[in-house]
Amino acid sequence: MKKITIIGSGFAGLTAVRTLRKQHQACEITLISPKAELVYMPSLIWVPSGAATKKDIIIPLDNFFKRMQVVHIASEVTGLDNQGRSVITPIGTYENDVLIIASGGQFIKKLPGIEHAITPCEGLEAAEAIRDRVAAMNGGNIAVGFSGNPKEPSAMRGGPMFEFLFGLDTQLRAEGRRDQFKLTFFTPAAKPGARLGEKAVKGLLAEMKKRNITTHLGHKIQKFEADKVITEEGEFAADLILFMPGMTGNAWFDNTKLERSEGGLLKANKFCEVAGVNKVFVAGDSGSFPGPEWMPKQAHIADLQAEAAAKNAIEVLNEKTPSHTFKIELMCIVDSNNKGMYVSRTMTGGRMLPNCRLLHVAKKIFGWWYLRQYK
After folding, report:
1. Is position 340 within any domain?
2. What sections of the chain are H helices per DSSP?
3. Predicted TM-score (pTM) of this structure
C-alpha cells in the first residue's frame, strides 16, 4: 500500500488528512508532530479575559487519528533525505511515496531585547502570560504591535494583534480599569492592516481612535527594553509589550535540499508542489506561494492549500499530473471580546462589515463547528 507522510498537526496537516480520507484513496497515512493535539490559535485572543481556557485551545487528536486510521509519530522533524522520500526524526526515519509538509513557520526573533516582548501566537503559554501580567498590573503602558518579513510580504500575522489590542481595551473597560492604562499600537507599516484592504485600514484606525488608543506608525523598530519600545523616530513607554514578528521557515528546512524563497519559506507553485523535488507538497505557513502580496497567512487559506495539496498527492500516487489549485482569499472576523468586524478580500474585490455583537457570536459558533470534526 502506498504511503503518504504529513508533517504537522495544525490546520493544514489535519485538513490534508480529512481530504485524503474523503477521496477514499487506499493509502497509509503517517503524521509526524510533537504532540497529538491541535492548538486552536483563533481562540487565544480570549484567554487574557478568561473567556477561553486550555480546554478551548488544546484539542486532543487521539480519537481523530483513530477514526482516520492515521499513525501518529510523536516527534520533531530534523531533516529529509532521498529527495524527500525519507523523513528524519530523532527517534527514527520514516519512508513515504508522497510527502506533505504542513509544519508551519517560525517567528523571526532578531530584534534586540525581544525577550522583553510576548509573542501571543506562540501558543497557550504566551496567552496565559498576557492574562497573568495584565491581572497583576495596577495600571501602566501596554504596547501592541507587529512587523513582517521584508523578504516575504505574505509571511506576516498581524490580524490577531488587532484582536488582542481591542480585546484588552474591552476587558479593561469591563473591569473598570481602562483609565489607568495607556494602550499604544505600533508597526513599521504606515497603513496597518493594508493587506485587508483600504476600507479595513480606515475602519481599524477609526476603531483605535474611538477607543483612545495611541498609534505609532510607519517607523522601523530598533529594539525593546523592559519598559519601552524604541523606534528610529523616537521611543514610548511600555510596561507590557505584545509583539508579533514576521515569519520564516522552520529550522529543519536547513537540513534539506528543498528550494527556499528569499524569505526562507519553501518555494511552491500553484499546485502546492515544492520546487526542485518530486512528490513533495506544502501547505500553510511553511510555503511561499505565487499570488498577490496581500495573500494571508491564516487558517482559512491553509485549509484551502491543504485540500489542494492532498488531492494532488493522490493524483501523483496514481501517476497523474497535479491539477488542483487553491482559491486565494482572505476572510476573518477581527474580534474585540464582545463585538467583531468582518473583513474579506479576493482577487476581484473586498468587503467589510462594521463592528457588531452578532459577528462576535458568529466567530464563537464557527470555532465550535470547526473543532467538532476533531473531537
Report:
1. no
2. 11-22, 54-57, 62-67, 124-136, 159-174, 198-210, 299-317, 357-371
3. 0.95
